[in-house]
## 1
Amino acid sequence: MEDKDFRLSRIFEEAIGAITNLDSKLFKTLRYLFFKPGALTSEFERGIRVPYMKPFQIFILANIFFFIFLSEIDIFRTPSKWFFVEHYDGVEVLKQVREIVAAKGISQEEVAVLYDAKSSNLAKGFIFLLLPIIALIAALLHWRQKIAFGKHIIFSIHYFSFVLVIAVLWTELIDLIVREFDNNYYVVPIQTIISVYLILAFRQFYKDNWAHAIWKGLLGTLLIGIAIQVYRMSINIWTLNHLLEPLTISSS
């Protein structure tokens, strides 16, 4: 390289160009992600990738966005203020909490702090495990098409990224308008939005006709919801059991 390539003006030009290019990719990616369900995956499959962000870049940004704004109202784990009850989905939570309190000589409030910190980290760290599950659901619903599983993975990344971002945007919107928590304002609208999105995405990427797209989209939403519930309970229980581990070791 020549000396002129290291002039400050040239460096600033390249920096501005890089930022502009990133912004262009980001805005175009978000436009396709939100307003053209399934089209981003179709573009990726056709090899048109330069104008858009890479799938995992989108997923990472969506994760950061989600866990910054919805760390308290987290659909991928249950915060202690709701989980620490006598019985939660058949689990004797407070019984285990009292065992931890007795073993470690700390208060229930301190256990709650430990639980929230660890469960939050686990929920963030292992959320990628939901991607192959969503991909498997999409693959099973379209098993006759004999599509490579990697394409289902890309589809799941784009779909799940949308779910994470729309959950934040809807929650923030409702908080501004209603200023109170009510499941009717959150659960039903979000489920409706992601169901419609999945139907449209199935129709675009998998070329389903409307009848197939609708029933596959609704069934897919249900199965994905079940998978998320299983993931959430696994995080809850694993975290609680991990806090009990020192007690088990010391008593043996």
Note: Residues 55-251 form one domain.
## 2
Amino acid sequence: MTTQPLLSVKNLKVHFYTLRGIVHALERVAFELNRQETLGLAGETGCGKSVTARAILRLIDPPGRIISGSIIFEGRDILTIDEAEVRDIRGSQISMIMQEPKMSLNPVIRVGDQVAETLLIHDRSLNRRSARRQAVDMLAQLGIPDPTRMAQRYPHELSGGMSQRIMIAMMLVTRPKLLIADEPTSALDVTIQAQILALMQTLVSEIQTSVLMITHDLGVMAETCERVAVMYAGDMVEVGSVHNVLKHPQHPYTQGLLQTVPDKANPDQPLFSIEGNVPSLLEPQTNCRFAPRCAHVMDRCKREIPPVYNLNGDHQAACFLHDGSPEAQAV
């Protein structure tokens, strides 16, 4: 097996040109995703997780624009190939589960036909009957009772959990090399959420697909991911194994994020919150964006952008607290 990562994102920068000014949505996003690995992309709402996912598929629409960086997938830079090549990659090699499944399903087409259509688009050697049969087989793999009958239904006849199963079937039926799951269980109750995550893990293991799991739920991240990348205000602040990041966080934002999780052993304890507000992304980054809210802020944090420091193994953090540390090395 090759040691090259399946996906390598370097210094990705995305801006949105609005009437109020330029929104610096992503500034220096960088991470790698290995083959048959699940990487969690974590952070609060508005930090740039979904924009990162859409940039990987080159789906940033005006007024947005990818300014610079590289997105290397299977040795090719997605940002430099032509649109026809990108269309061949979308759906067949990289698939994406959206946050709201019912918004992504066509309300006037039966769900079985929608799953089959995904196959027909990417494999023109298939006829409609074969694609339909494979679609029903995929529904069966997802544990859907009476998949043949379910394939005849329309999206409005499905529950939220069943709609999400159909979306997963559509995204995995082509056996992609990379699955981007954008908050795949955020609209579901806890019981259905657990079922969906278990199904995804089983199918991903069988198909040997890599997964980029976008979530703000640290519990989901801990259960499903091997490595974690933490974002704040369009900037990547920490990357490492799920154990290192959750047990030994090295960036003040990650530490604060973990403190916001309610303590089950002490339910009467007041909930922790990080003081201050997220900075306006209309301002270009000239310093550490977390500095106004950081308990460890130094003068240089207000004047300089911290470099990314390599810590133990593959653990990285963008924080001046590691400057001068014997085990830390600036990238």
Note: Residues 19 and 63 are 10 Å apart (CA to CA).
## 3
Amino acid sequence: MLRRPTFLQIDPPSRDTLADEADAGLRAPQAWLSPKLFYDALGSRLFDAITELPEYYPTRTEAALMACHGADIAAAVRSALPAAPTLVDLGAGNCTKAAALFDLLRPAHYVAVDISADYLRNTLTCLQREYPELRMSGVGMDFSVRLALPGEVLAHERTGAAPQSALIFYPGSSIGNFDPPEALRLLREARALAPGAALLIGVDLVKPLEVLLPAYDDALGVTAAFNLNVLRRLNALLGADFDLADWQHEARFNAAASRIEMHLAARTEVTVRWRGGERHFRAAETIHTENSYKWTVEGFAALLAEAGFAQRRHWTDERSWFAVFLASG
């Protein structure tokens, strides 16, 4: 009998909550929007397209690193987690990165977690057909606020007991979207998800600007479309009157904070109105939409130690553009 994945939506952000947050961000001295607004169905597909771009090195660099060191990483995971683990995939998206680990790790249970619940549901339903014997669960949640899963999600299918081992998988350098204090909070919550949990996480490293900047401002304009899509969402969410033609995508590197910043810059003076509010933007004034922090190996290892992980290993590609860390204990 073909298994079917189970799905759970945890504390879905209400339309009013998202609208209130967006309203507050638009009124701030430096206007800002939460990156969670990127990931509606269209935004998720646009991000998948970004990962295929020649300029976007993180996905292919991480994939090559995992292919090169996969056997060593799998052996290290088995040493840290002797039993077949529950694999918890944070920001699962199209699930392809986790699926590449199935044959190496032989997980007992795959738990895919993503803010875009509808997109995840469709992806996981297709993936289950490819791996009919593997227990799969999908969880729609915004773990940027708090990472905590109900016990029944991680519990053993038959006994209801907590998993003997769990591997928290957070690839793609998405940890870079969190500022350092929030990244520390998320790492601590990941460690607390299950008894004896280990963490396998991808981290983008500091590198030359001629490599960094094109990854966030590609020649085809896919990243620009991804960024501008947030204005389309605001029009629907707030009843706003953003004209996308009035705005342009901008990527910059903040050296002091060691982060890429994405902004939407007004092409000309423009007044935007929405339910209960309005704002006049000067020409070139921006809305700050995303950060992507870049770490050193030493800096991220120190962050893992501060989060309580006693054992830490890492692997890098030959150019030291990207690192994968395994942390446990």
Note: Residues 57-80 form the longest helix (24 residues).
## 4
Amino acid sequence: MIKAYAAMEPGGELQAFEYDPGPLAQDDVEIDVESCGICHSDISMLDNDWGFTQYPFVPGHEVVGTIAAVGDNVTSFSVGQRVGLGWHSGYCNSCHTCHSGDHNLCDAAQPTIAGRHGGFADKVRAQAAAVVLLPEGVNPDSAGPLFCGGVTVFNPLVQFDIKPTAKVAVIGIGGLGHMALQFLNAWGCEVTAFTSSESKKAEALTLGAHSVLDSRDPEALAAAAGSFDLILSTVNVKLEWNAYIATLRAKGRLHFVGATLEPLDISVFPLIGGQRSISGSPVGSPAVIKTMLDFAALHKIEPVTEYFAFDKVNEALQRLREGDAKYRIVLTDK
């Protein structure tokens, strides 16, 4: 039996829950969970904001732990190795997208917390292809958020071949944005942080921004016209997107990694005239996750985290709901 924490209804408190996972599938591994980050996606799923949550619901898709058992077909891992698991727990491994290495875009990709139970538990199972070895040099205590939030902001650097000479801006210095600043600075980019929080300006500079712009100041936005090759939006709220597009250089890109739910109100002529682009991306493939982890180890990049014991999970979720987390929360068995 696997011991977990589950909600029985939308928005419900998590409570102790046990389930029998059955025999271990031939291509799967079982992980002894040491820690698990809490992501805003866990709350969205808990509340059934996206309309497909199944209850009982066990959140958790930023897992770090050790291999406890391997399926009969698994040769890539052995018992005792420390690994991580992110948003996806499996892929079809047979479509063109998977064969191209873009497993994260597979139509049949299996979310870790949709249709299966996640990592707010003592154990979790996943297809071996979705699990990534944690390299030396990455702090296992804080590594969980890298497997979702971290790769979400790292993935665009790989997908769009961002040059180290690029000028890049980040909208929102929170759970995603604070990691984006660190990655971009280490990548070699000239980094600007857009924030409306006066208290976050100094910290943004510490995290890797070379400059900070007040996103509430129309004059500051106007003065930045034609400045950026890439803008990463990590927020989930509606903004004056046309003002941000105006700060892009010709061929610049406004890229969404934050799930803005309201439709984008955007004028097309600045896109046409400057050959600018608007795009979005999810988490990365296992190969990109591995690259990100190696990069994080090399440059000593680490999420800023707060820690809660697993049995304090409801307190941790409430702290995240209230926006008080700085900047990620990790549940731990220590």
Note: The radius of gyration is 20 Å.
